[in-house]
């Protein structure tokens, strides 16, 4: 069945089963590979995108559940105010190592910052503990979120 | 692990690095495009005894006509910062800015790009890229600079000694003339290669020792970085697979009727021991895989379980092994000891669980094969693909990519072999992506090890005898067979021998026991991942038996290893060792010299009434000799510590009825943000050759944590991972 989804401000038609996770539509059908596959069960957060601004695990989000919602991915999050600040803080704090999980980390952090201008440590724990980083960049992620929050 | 390292006292071990400089040759020739190309010849360390026959160069610098410096990079980036630290070495001596250096992945060619510290195998691992590159790449940069200066001086008819270099230009201050390297490249290529070029003195370093920004970061924050899993050759199909759930099992039958009916599924590929579903996208491939009805013949290991493997290893430690180290007379010393301490330790199988699941893209054509992958060992992958495809090496092209986590997993070619097997049945390119469940259940695992130790203490409580016999798999015996000799290899024993402590009588034996069916592999911090946990836990036990403070006890044994003593004292000081703590909170210490780096940790843990462990704070002090990129040193310790705590608290792969019981991040857990402690890193600065940094923190942190648990609860943990049930506070 054909679906129409709006990604980063553009509308795309895709012909897949309705239960196909958004992750695979983005990566394999639309060729937007910035969003990563980690677990397929919403356990690691690597696939995080924004659906109407809300951090969402695309690996368990069926494409037929999206309707007219606006999807934002790592490729375009820099165009949002919070996303741009988070990306800059990530660079300033040299957060990244292998980098594979960082698309998802940045999407979770940008959604946090957009909804909470001054997150506490507990807020950061709540928003970010669903995102695994095997390189263990957690303390730099925490510092970078705080820096981004202070830069407003 | 240094494969060719001579057996020597720890203090002398770093000499292996400086020896390389005496065996170095540089050749120059005109590069394609008229630039200056330096090929650096470094006879393989394992060929030390051979005459200097033919110089197989192992790295290339290219100075292009537009001034671009191109480094053909023999090491692969997997988060450890090597794409920044290695270019720093060249840029330092060439006097160019770091952003003037562009990297190209080295193609598979062990003659050119073999790692001299890995027996000439072209691989990135064992925390040795900076160690291996330290002399030769600086030398290559300095030689290139000298030839560029010579070319400029000849053009201007001036004394080369009057010329200076900066920012990719040669200057002649007396006349005020200056010229860019790019304009000199063609002339420089015709200059003789100077025999002896002085390297910069440490006090003249302009880049080395500064916190350089990583070159690979920008693309990793905006989704444009391309990992192996991201490649999309035109027409590529996506496949996922089920491999025999028991090791060594076979496919008995497949009913693919329902799978073929899934929209987007194109093809089912049946192999002897695996079934793959090829589809338009991974969503369809996974749905097709779930719809397959596969009957397996579980094969010879159908009944295998971890307890039986552990029992076999335990039994093996009762017999003799290969002697890895013998100092003094342990039996006699033990007989005269006032106190005797005995213990056994065991550590579990561990999966790598790289965030980027295993994947490989292959296009098999009638006359060739193309591979896209992220590999730590690209030449090995190249050879394995050619063999599997039945093609000569020159018909196989491997494109290497950024790695979304290596930790040793991507030193193996199994994923590439599997992808080629599948691609041989597919018309066009196919990307084989493992589900997380396949990734964890068909990993090649950090071995299970069992250790039996005993020690004798004198009247003052100090150790006069140390006995250690351990049993488990030798990864090196499979991965690089020539390195396994007389029952020993240099990895499996690292951290168990050549201890920093003055132990007058010491005896260490290793018994190689390969578990049936289960493939074992390198895992971040390799041999020391196991040995340092055991030796540093046991050293803590000796201090406890002697009723002495664990730091003071160790310090008393370090008079002959001042660098070790210094890092231990610094870590203790910075951690506030000895200051009072609340009940069920404790500090634990560890000390090691592995990967040519001295490192001490103090961990502070809190154990709740129900036995849950929280690591509150970690303080690390280290001496890795010369620091190339200080921010990378900090980052790698922070990273390695989280990796180690993850293993200590959560890491365990178990088998039952031949099957791995863990499958995804719910059953194989990772440390998360809310559990991650702050990690303080203190570096002792000096000008010794650089030590390795990517892995040392992982082996070091584990005993610091378990020793802290002992301090907090009085419970000595001799088996990993930490079992909260054993730590519950009695009512």
Tally the structural domains of chain B.
3
Oligomer: heterodimer
Q: What name does the CATH topology of the largest domain in chain A carry?
A: DNA polymerase, domain 1
CATH structural fold name of the largest domain in chain B: Aldehyde Oxidoreductase, domain 4
The share of residues in extended strands of chain A comes to: 15-25%
Helix/strand order of chain A: EEHEEEHHHH
Could you tell me how far the N terminus lies from the C terminus of chain B, measured between alpha carbons in angstroms? 47 Å
CATH architecture of the largest domain in chain A: Orthogonal Bundle
User: Any low-confidence stretches of chain A, pLDDT <50, length ≥5?
Assistant: none
The number of helices of chain B is 19
**Which percent bin holds the helix content of chain A?**
25-40%
Biggest contact: A-B, 59 and 65 residues
Distance between the termini of chain A: 44 Å
Rg of chain A to the nearest angstrom?
15 Å
Quick overview:
The complex is a heterodimer of chains A (152) and B (731). Chain A is an alpha+beta fold. Chain A has five helices and five strands, in the order ββαβββαααα.
Task: Give a description of the structure.
The complex is a heterodimer of chains A (152) and B (731). Chain A has 2 domains: 2-72, Ubiquitin-like (UB roll), CATH 3.10.20.30; 77-150, Orthogonal Bundle (DNA polymerase, domain 1). Helices cover 36% and strands 15% of the residues of chain A. Chain A is built from 5 helices and 5 strands. The N and C termini of chain A lie far apart (44 Å). The relative contact order of chain A is 0.16. Chain B has 731 residues and is an alpha+beta fold. Chain B has 3 domains: 10-216, Aldehyde oxidase/xanthine dehydrogenase, molybdopterin binding domain (Aldehyde Oxidoreductase, domain 4, 2-Layer Sandwich); 228-300 and 358-433, Aldehyde oxidase/xanthine dehydrogenase, molybdopterin binding domain (Aldehyde Oxidoreductase, domain 4, 2-Layer Sandwich), CATH 3.30.365; 306-349 and 445-727, Aldehyde oxidase/xanthine dehydrogenase, molybdopterin binding domain (Aldehyde Oxidoreductase, domain 4, 2-Layer Sandwich). In chain B, 28% of the residues lie in helices and 24% in strands. In chain B, the strands form 7 sheets. Chain B has a 7-stranded mixed beta sheet with strand order 11-12-9-19-16-17-18, sandwiched between helices. A 5-stranded mixed beta sheet of chain B has the order 1-2-3-4-5. A 5-stranded mixed beta sheet of chain B has the order 14-22-21-20-15, sandwiched between helices. In chain B, helix 14 links the parallel strand 21 (463-472) and strand 22. Classes of the chains: A alpha+beta (152), B alpha+beta (731). The interface between A and B is large, with 59 and 65 residues.
């Amino acid at each position: 069945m054909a679906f129409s989804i709006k990604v980063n401000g553009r509308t795309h038609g895709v012909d897949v089963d309705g239960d196909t996770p958004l992750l695979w539509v983005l990566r394999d059908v639309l060729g937007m590979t910035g969003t990563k596959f980690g677990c397929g069960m919403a356990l690691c957060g690597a696939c995080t995108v924004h659906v109407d601004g809300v951090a969402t695990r695309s690996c368990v989000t069926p494409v037929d559940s999206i309707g007219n919602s606006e999807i934002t991915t790592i490729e375009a999050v820099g165009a949002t105010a919070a996303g741009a600040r988070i990306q800059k803080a990530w660079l300033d704090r040299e957060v990244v190592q292998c980098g594979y999980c960082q698309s998802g980390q940045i999407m979770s952090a940008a959604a946090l910052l957009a909804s909470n201008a001054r997150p506490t440590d507990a807020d950061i724990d709540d928003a970010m503990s669903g995102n695994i980083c095997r390189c263990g960049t957690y303390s730099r992620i925490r510092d970078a979120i705080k820096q981004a929050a202070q830069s407003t | 692990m240094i494969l060719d390292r001579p057996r020597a006292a720890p203090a002398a071990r770093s000499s292996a690095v400086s020896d390389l400089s005496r065996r170095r040759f540089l050749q120059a020739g005109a590069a394609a495009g008229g630039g200056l190309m330096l090929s650096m010849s470094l006879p393989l360390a394992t060929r030390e005894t051979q005459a200097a026959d033919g110089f197989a160069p192992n790295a290339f610098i290219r100075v292009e006509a537009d001034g671009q410096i191109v480094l053909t990079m023999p090491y692969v980036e997997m988060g450890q910062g090597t794409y920044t630290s290695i270019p720093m070495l060249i840029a330092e001596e060439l006097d160019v800015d770091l952003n003037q250096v562009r990297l190209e992945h080295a193609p598979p060619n062990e003659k050119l790009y073999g790692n001299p510290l890995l027996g000439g195998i072209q691989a990135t691992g064992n925390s040795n890229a900076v160690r291996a590159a330290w002399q030769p790449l600086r030398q290559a940069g300095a030689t290139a600079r000298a030839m560029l200066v010579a070319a400029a001086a000849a053009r201007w008819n001036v004394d080369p000694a009057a010329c200076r270099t900066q920012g990719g230009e040669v200057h002649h201050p007396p006349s005020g003339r200056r010229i860019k390297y790019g304009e000199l490249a063609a002339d420089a290529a015709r200059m003789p290669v100077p025999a002896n070029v002085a390297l910069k003195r440490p006090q003249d370093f302009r880049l080395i020792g500064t916190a350089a920004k990583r070159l690979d970061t920008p693309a990793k924050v905006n989704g444009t970085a391309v990992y192996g899993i991201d490649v999309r050759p035109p027409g590529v199909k996506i496949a996922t697979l089920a491999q025999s759930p028991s090791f060594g099992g076979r496919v008995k039958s497949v009913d693919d009727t329902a799978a073929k009916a899934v929209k987007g599924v194109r093809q089912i590929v049946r192999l002897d021991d695996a079934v793959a579903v090829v589809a338009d996208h991974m969503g369809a491939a996974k749905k097709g895989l779930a719809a397959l009805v596969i009957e397996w013949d579980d094969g010879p290991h159908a009944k295998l379980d971890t307890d039986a493997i552990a029992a076999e290893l335990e039994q093996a430690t009762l017999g003799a092994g290969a002697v890895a180290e013998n100092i003094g007379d342990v039996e006699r010393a033990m007989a005269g000891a006032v106190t005797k301490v005995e213990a056994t330790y065991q550590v579990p199988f561990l999966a790598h669980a790289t965030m980027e699941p295993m994947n490989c893209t292959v296009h098999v054509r009638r006359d060739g094969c193309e591979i896209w992958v992220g590999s730590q060992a690209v030449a090995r992958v190249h050879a394995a693909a050619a063999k599997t495809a039945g093609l000569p090496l020159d018909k196989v092209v491997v494109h290497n990519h950024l790695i979304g986590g290596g930790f040793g997993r991507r030193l193996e070619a199994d994923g590439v072999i599997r992808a080629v097997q599948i691609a041989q049945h597919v018309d066009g390119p196919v990307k084989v992506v493992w589900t997380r469940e396949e990734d964890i259940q068909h990993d090649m695992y950090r071995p299970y090890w069992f250790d039996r130790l005993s020690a004798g203490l004198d009247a003052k409580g100090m150790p006069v005898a140390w006995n250690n016999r351990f049993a488990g798999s030798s990864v090196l015996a499979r991965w690089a067979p020539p390195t396994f000799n007389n029952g020993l290899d240099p990895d499996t024993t690292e951290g168990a021998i050549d201890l920093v402590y003055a132990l007058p009588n010491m005896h260490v034996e290793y018994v190689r026991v390969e578990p049936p069916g289960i493939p074992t592999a390198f895992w971040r911090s390799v041999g020391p991942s196991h040995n340092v946990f055991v030796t540093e836990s046991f050293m803590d036990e000796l201090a406890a038996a002697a009723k002495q403070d664990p730091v003071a006890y160790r310090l008393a044994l370090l008079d002959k290893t001042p660098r070790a003593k210094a890092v231990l004292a610094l870590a203790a000081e910075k951690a506030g060792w000895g200051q009072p703590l609340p009940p069920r909170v404790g500090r634990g210490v560890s000390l090691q010299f592995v990967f040519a780096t001295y490192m001490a940790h103090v961990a502070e843990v809190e154990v709740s009434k129900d036995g849950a462990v929280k690591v509150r704070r970690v303080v690390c002090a280290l001496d890795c000799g010369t620091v190339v990129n200080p921010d990378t040193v900090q980052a790698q310790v922070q990273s390695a510590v989280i990796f180690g705590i993850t293993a200590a608290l959560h890491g365990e792969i178990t088998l039952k009825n031949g099957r791995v019981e863990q499958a995804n991040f719910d059953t194989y857990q990772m440390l998360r943000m809310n559990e991650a402690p702050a990690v303080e890193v203190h570096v002792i600065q000096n000008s010794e050759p650089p030590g390795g940094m990517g892995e040392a923190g992982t082996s070091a942190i584990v005993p610091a944590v378990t020793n802290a648990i002992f301090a907090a609860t009085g419970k000595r943990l001799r088996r990993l991972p930490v079992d909260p049930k054993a730590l519950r506070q009695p009512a």
